[in-house]
């Protein structure tokens, strides 16, 4: 009798695990997930604007000419990753000297301490 119960419990465990894996297919814990409808996502657009403003602020400390500042246009693509906070990978369009350019930005948000930190900001490069 105990052996039958053990087999039954084992089968239930395997079936439950299978459904969990099937429902979670495509989502890896700690992996990047694409954010849909980015252009209408106000939070993502605010992070894009924050990225450009932080970049301009850091560049202003390095040089005195203000004519090369970027002007935020929009975030066109975004992914997020849960780490010790939420790490956002943004593809941003901005204007510089009247020309539209694309940049990549990484921002970490820790909502529980109300912090945002720009980790990187660089020109977008098509990765093959």
**Largest sheet entry:** 5 strands, antiparallel
The CATH class label is: Alpha Beta
Average pLDDT taken over every residue? 84
What is the CATH architecture descriptor? Roll
Order of helices and strands: HEHEEEE
Tell me the strand percentage band: 35-45%
Strand order across the biggest sheet? 1-2-3-4-5
Uncertain runs with pLDDT below 50, 5 residues or more?
19-25
Tell how many strands the DSSP assignment holds: 5
Indicate the radius of gyration in whole angstroms: 22 Å
CATH fold description: Nuclear Transport Factor 2, Chain: A
Protein name: Cysteine proteinase inhibitor B-like
Keywords: Protease inhibitor, Signal, Thiol protease inhibitor
Domain Cystatin: 27-124
GO molecular function, one term: cysteine-type endopeptidase inhibitor activity
């Amino acid at each position: 009798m105990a052996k039958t119960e053990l087999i039954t419990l084992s089968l239930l465990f395997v079936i439950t695990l299978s459904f969990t894996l099937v429902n979670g297919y495509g989502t890896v814990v700690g992996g990047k997930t694409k954010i849909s409808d980015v252009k209408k996502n106000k939070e993502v657009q605010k992070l894009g604007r924050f990225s450009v403003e932080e970049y301009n602020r850091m560049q202003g400390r390095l040089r005195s000419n203000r004519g090369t500042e970027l002007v935020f246009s929009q975030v066109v693509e975004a992914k997020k990753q849960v780490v010790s906070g939420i790490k956002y990978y943004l593809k941003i369009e901005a204007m510089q000297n009247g020309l539209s350019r694309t940049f990549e930005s990484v921002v970490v948000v820790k909502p529980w301490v109300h912090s945002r930190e720009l980790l990187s900001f660089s020109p977008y490069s098509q990765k093959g």
